[in-house]
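Hey, quick one: can you model this chain's 3D structure?
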Amino acid sequence: MAFVDTVFDFFDSGAGPIDGPYGAIGNNFPIPVSTDVVLFGNESDSLSLPTGSFVTVGFANQTIIDSPGNDIFIDEVGRNSNTEFADIFVSSDFENFTFLGRAGEGSN
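Sure thing. Here's the predicted structure for all 108 residues.
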């Protein structure tokens, strides 16, 4: 099992309540946060991605293989977890991206 360990890129669309990156640390929201919160945050910490925003994360020194069953887990948390969605893309070269699916509705 491997965990995402690097943030490669972040884009803030400007559609949120404050300039990004922003999110939550504990019950404090919205506040400026580091994009590293997606790597090392605890369950009450988060990075918010308003419409049109994105974060590109990856596995820096790991080899990824396709194994039986679900290979990638995406968790949507927060007050809007039943109405927010995230399109998930995968790439091995940062040029060609394949749509993997959509995370949302409080599921993965």
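One thing worth noting: Residues 48 and 56 are 13 Å apart (CA to CA).
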